[in-house]
Amino acid sequence: MATQIEDRGFFPDKVSERVEYKTLSKKEELIIYNYFEDLFGLDRQIFKNYEFIKRGKDLWICTKKDLQTLAFESKGLKINTVGIRALRNPFDDNKKATTNFIQIFGKYATKNSYDLKDHELLPYLRGQDLEFPEPLERGYKIIKYKSEIIGMGIALENRLINQIPKSRFIKNWNLKSI
Fold first, then answer.
1. Within this chain, do residues 92 and 28 fall inside the same structural domain, yes or no?
2. Domain containing 56 — which CATH number?
3. Is 99 helix (H, G, I), strand (E, B) or coil?
């Protein structure tokens, strides 16, 4: 039986390196909670059953129960991923919430969201930026359509710049409307 280092599973071009998960200090937790509260109005109580952990340069979130899975590392089993990536560059000025995180927790946001109108949905899902006659409040926005969270966008003056990953764009659908 080959070890993961010999076999490397589905990622033969990646060098197998051990990236450790680290729990946040109280100060780091406060920075993260304040960021989500200030930017999106996400109350820290939303995260009471979750744990934020650092992995490399990113911040991940998992349930407190899943965090116990990391104990297997001490038994010699390599855990590749626990939870989902929540923030890129969490302690820099250019931190950004991930689409997966926003699609799960964005429903609790009380500010900085934009509701797509019917005629804006399909162009946005195809990856297009949106233009407006009036400027929007500058910054990250949670993009919604009715009750569904689509992802993220950045409002810059009269534009809403699409932040949906290209791999999730709708490319070849011949939909005229939804």
1. yes
2. 3.10.450.720
3. helix
Strands (E), 4-147: 21-23, 50-55, 58-63, 84-88, 96-97, 113-115, 130-131, 139-145
Would residue 37 be called left, alpha or beta, if left means φ above 0 and alpha means ψ between -120 and 50 degrees? alpha
Alpha-helical regions (H) of 25-129: 26-40, 64-67, 99-105, 118-125
The identity of residue 166, as a single letter, is K
pLDDT (tens digit per residue) in 115-168: 999 999 888 888 889 999 898 899 999 999 998 999 999 999 899 998 988 777
Token pair 């689409």 is found at 99
Domain with 146 in it: 112-168
CA 141 to chain centre: 13
Task: For the chain, give the number of residues.
Answer: 178
- Terminal C-alpha separation, the chain: 50
| 100 and 116 assigned to the same domain | no
70 versus 91: the higher-pLDDT residue is 91
Q: pTM, whole model, 2 decimals?
A: 0.79
Shared domain check, 145 and 94: no
Instruction: Write down the residue that tokens 């005629």 correspond to.
Output: 119
Say whether both 135 and 100 belong to one domain. Answer: no
